[in-house]
Amino acid sequence: MRLFPALFLFFSISVYTQNTLSLEEGSASPRADLSQISWMEGHWRGEAFGGITEEIWSPPMGGSMMFSFKLVVEGAVSFYELGHIRQLDDTLVFELKHFHGDLKGWEEKEEVQRFKLVKTEGNRLYFEGFTFEKVSGDEINIYASIQQEDGTQEEVTFNYKRPTE
Fold first, then answer.
1. Cα separation of 131 and 143, whole Å?
2. What's the domain of life for this entry (predicted)?
3. What is the pLDDT of residues 102-115, one digit of tens each?
4. What domains, with CATH codes, occur in the chain?
């Protein structure tokens, strides 16, 4: 019976890490355009990192969809992200910058976090380390592969719903 727990752990880990992907070195991103992710438009709210998360996405305009992210823990802003998914030639790229609650940047002035498109599949768009999933018209998931302080990667699920208030 020792085999069952080992198999369960193996399949749990396999399923757990299937939500985010990486682009193989030397591979090009597939063709895509903003119409394939325009369903992200709107106001979304969820819970993660011990607080309330909020994302607001603009409609496609000028070759991009702009977003803002906010994490509020114990009534105070922990950090923000600002960024966009933009059309780059015949594909998409996801780019962002982080800011502390006082708007002091994490990255250097000219530095931008950039994630290339890996693939599109049904209701999902896979960027390097991030996956955007449409669950329904009022619910989405964003899966993020986040590097921990010890160097390991952890996949975090952000489940968002449209606020009703």
1. 5
2. Bacteria
3. 999 999 999 999 99
4. 19-161 (2.40.128.20)
